[in-house]
Amino acid sequence: MIYRLSKKKKLKAEINVVPYIDVMLVLLIIFMVLSPLLIQGVEVNLPNTDTTKMSIQNEPLVISIDVSGNYYLNVGEETLPISLEELKRKSSVIFEANPEIEIVFQSDKGVIFDSVAKAMAAVQSVGISKIGIVTTGYAD
To answer: Fewest C-beta in 10 Å: which of 49, 80, 111, 135?
Structure first.
């Protein structure tokens, strides 16, 4: 008999990661394609619930919006009519004087949300982050 004197081959314990990279790239492409579709909203009827009270340390600045979309700044007992540009300027001055200011919006339920969103964006653009919305506290 002939015996061969050869070296034994060592086993390599490696994980082939190429298939995992392929799967990861396919999943990435799927999520990139589907994510804009998931952002769009679906029309739903939200349930009526009781509202919870905010915990407010200082007196907040109240901005009211009436049915026709006019803005009012509530200062103490007075209610002053104000435009959107004036609201932005005055909220900037108020924020510089008090960076911890809290602003709440009080709007009629018949107001188009666009008016509320514009006012909130104007206030947020100056750096105010503590913003709330006043509700009645009971379900209709």
So the answer is: 49
Residue located via tokens 């026709």? 68
Asked whether the beta carbons of 90 and 73 are under 8 A apart, the reply is yes
Count other Cβ atoms within 10 Å, centred on residue 107: 21
- pLDDT band for 23, please (50, 70, 90 cuts): very high
For 1-138, where are the alpha helices, taking DSSP H only? 18-39, 84-97, 113-125
The pTM for the full model equals: 0.54
> Which residue range forms the structural domain that includes residue 128?
61-133
Check which CATH number belongs to the domain holding 110 and give it.
Answer: 3.30.420.270
For residue 11, being part of any structural domain is answered with no
* pLDDT tens profile 27-82: 999 988 887 766 544 444 444 555 555 555 567 788 888 888 888 887 767 778 88
**Distances in whole angstroms, Cα of residue 57 to Cα of each of 19, 29, 52, 54, 102:** 57, 48, 16, 10, 9
12 inside domain = no
Tokens of 45: 């009827």
